[in-house]
Each structure stands twice: as structure tokens, then as C-alpha cells.
Amino acid sequence: MNRSWAEPWKIKMVEPISVTTREHREAAIVEAGYNTFLLKSDDVYIDLLTDSGTTAMSDRQWAAMMIGDESYAGARSFYKLVEAVHDVYGYEELIPTHQGRGAEHILSQILISPGDVIPGNMYFTTTRYHQERAGGTFVDVIIDEAHDPTSMHPFKGNIDLDKLAAVVEEFGAERVAYVSFETNVNLAGGQPASMANIKAVYDYCSQRGILVMLDATRAVENAYMIQQREAGYEDSSVASILSEITSYSDGATVSSKKDNLVNIGGFLAVRDPELARKARALLVAFEGLHTYGGMAGRDMEALAEGIREMVRTDDHVRSRVGQVEYLGNRLIKFGVPVVTPIGGHGVFLDAARILEHLDQDEFPAQALAAAIYVDSGVRGMERGIVSAGRDPLTGENRRPNLELVRLTIPRRVYTQSHMDVVAESVIEVFNNRESIGGLTFTYEPEDLRFFQARFAPIAQDA
Ligand code: PM9
Description:
Aspartate Aminotransferase, domain 1; binds ligand PM9; Aspartate Aminotransferase, domain 2; 16 helices; alpha/beta; 2 domains
């Protein structure tokens, strides 16, 4: 018999949430311009917008916050964080930032010169934004399977070495600022890279003097997938797999609001002291002094504990990913098209297949996210043509193959019953999908448009 797992924690404090009426939600989505980012959280029942900063911290983390050292310089809490990052990720030099994009900003500014290219395994919105702001051009070198929501490839986050070699050949190694290697690729659906691929990319790059910088934001989830799927790792701990992943890199940016189990924080970590010196010079201008960057002492305490907790035993990540799989498998059972295999941090609904009657220019994923919200108060996020934005050179919409709604599961926050409610709502909306119409922009911001864009339904007779 298959035995069940359960969460490796019990609940000590609860935060009430309440369900609203359909009429209330219909008014709220209009007020939010059909953008779930613009909804007030009080109008949301089950919030699956993001797994970023939405974690429930442990009693140990809350206790650690009480002993935060708020000294301006040289705080004890900083050194505790340096030790945790070194022990768990293996990097010597730590540059603490307010969150992931702070680290991406600094990394892009110190490594990218105008005209450089940055190959990477599918883009991430803020990462590419900072790369472009620094004058670089991002080039997608992820394997083709990542762009196919139905592919069952176990490592859809892998870099295609032939594509990478073609970029290096075309531009020359000296124009490659670094390889941007994301673990458990967010926009591909939370899909991992294999250890064999991570190592092969690092070997290829180090032979040519090209740096490999990980986006290790969800590296623990990637390590767990390697344990589950890659031959030779079934008996290794997630902690040891994580150490091996990071050993094949020159540094990493991390949004600590995900794997690291805190509500705010992030860091850039590198091995090279000279690179760290350059990063710290910018850190003091844009974030804060080099021993706190963008965080209070108490935040660094909670983060240091979160980093240790995420890999103290494998039970945490097993139940975290297990909950995502539980939701995904329920939806698959009822025929709802989702990205497969089920990812590490969320279930990604395939809006292109669900709303086949809508053109991509009618923003099917945006419309589907709004429809699910109206049905039940469950909030997801568009990850398709709106998130992809416009090409800065041509001004044309980028048209990603993946037109998705992400139902992202916060860590240690919701129960299996919440997942059942979510599944039932998505199934109901799926069964009534023909009634969902397309959307058009009423306001389109220039940069990172998905955050604040506003929409209206396309008139039926248009
Ligand atoms: N990710 C997410 O919901 C939060 C904002 S949505 C743009 O998935 C990766 C892989 C991320 C990420 C944020 C960041 C930026 C970098 N890399 O949000 O600045 O998923 O801490 O991190 C979000 P910060």
C-alpha cells in the first residue's frame, strides 16, 4: 500500500480568511482592471498569486527575530547569515540585498557591458529586465521541451549545450557576460535542471573563462527533483545535492522569499573576492551598508534560520512539493490541461489549451486568472504574453509558447482542504470555459507591465 505523507509541522497560530460573495468579487475584479496583482488581499480567499514572501515562518524563526542585532555596522546577525550561506550553499562572499531583484541589479551592473549577451534557461521577468537595463541582451538557450507544456521531459530546465555553443561561437566568449542558470525554472512551470546538465554547462563555461551565475531562488526544490528523478541521487540528502549544484557555479542570486522561508530578503553570493568588492561598492549606494544591505538585523536572523531549516531534513521539501503535486494530480484527473510534469512551486494551467477559442492577443491567461478569481476568490497569476512584455528593440509583443496561469503554493500556509477547494473551482471554470471572453489593455506600463497593467473585456460585438 502507498502510505501518505503529512506536513512535518503542526499549526501554532492561525490567520483568519473569509470567503466573499460572487457579486463582491465581480466588482473587485473590475476595480482591479482584471489584473490579479491589483486586487486587495482582503478580497481574496485562497491566495495563490505567488510563493514569494508568503511563507509561514517557524517558531524558531520568530524566536530568532527577537535576538536580531540592529547595529548599523558589523551586526552579529550578518555574520550568522554569512555562516549559514557558506554552510548550505558553499559560497564565501555574501552581499545581502532587500530581495532577489536587488541582487540581480547589482550582478547585472558589475558583469554586463553594453552589447554583451547573457544566455540563460528561459527568462525571468526581473532578471531579464536588469540584464537589459545594463545594456545586455538575454538569449534563451533552454531545451526545446521546456516550451512544450505537454512534454514529460524530467528536466525541462536543462540548458541545450548546442544552443549555448552557438551563442558563444556567434558572439565570442568575451561578449558573454555570464551564463544565467536558473534552478527549477519558474516560467517553464517550476521545472528542474539535472545535475549532469548543470555540471556539463559549468565544465563547458569554465574551459572558456565564462562565469556561471545561478538563480538559486528555488534550488532546494531543484535538488529534491534530482533526488527523485536522477539516477545515482536517490540515496543522497537534499542538502548534499544542493551543495553539489552550487559547486558547479561561480556565484548565485537568491530571492530568499521562496526556498529560504522568509517574507523579505535576498542575496548575491560569489566566490571571487574581487567580484564581491565591486558588488559591495554598489551595495552601499543602492541597498545599504555591506553588513546589512537591504535587511534589518532581525530579517537576517530569520533568514539564517530559514536557510538551515529548508534542508535540515528532507521532510520539509518532500511535503512542500507533495502538496503541489496533490493539487496538480487532482486537476489532471478531471482533464484540466496543466504543464507536465507538475512543477515544484505551483501548478501551471495551460490557458492556451483551456481557452482555445481565444487568440493570444486576447490574453487568455489573464482572462482565465480573472475568471477563477470571480468563481471562488482563488487568486492566481498570468504567466504568458502579458508577463513576456515587448521586445525593447522592435516594440513588438513577445509571444511565448507558454500561455499559463500559475497557481503558486505558499510554503507551510495552506492545507490539503484548501487545495481541494482550489481544484473544485478550477474544474468548474474549466467546465464553463466557453463563457470566458478575451481582454484588451486599458493601461499598459512600459516596464514589467504585468504588475500594474489594467484590462477590460473585449466588447462581444467587436
Ligand atoms: N519571483 C514570483 O512570484 C515574485 C515576483 S513576480 C515577478 O515568482 C526568480 C526565479 C523569481 C523571482 C521572483 C526573482 C525576483 C528572481 N528569480 O521578487 O525580487 O521567481 O525577491 O525576486 C516572484 P524578488
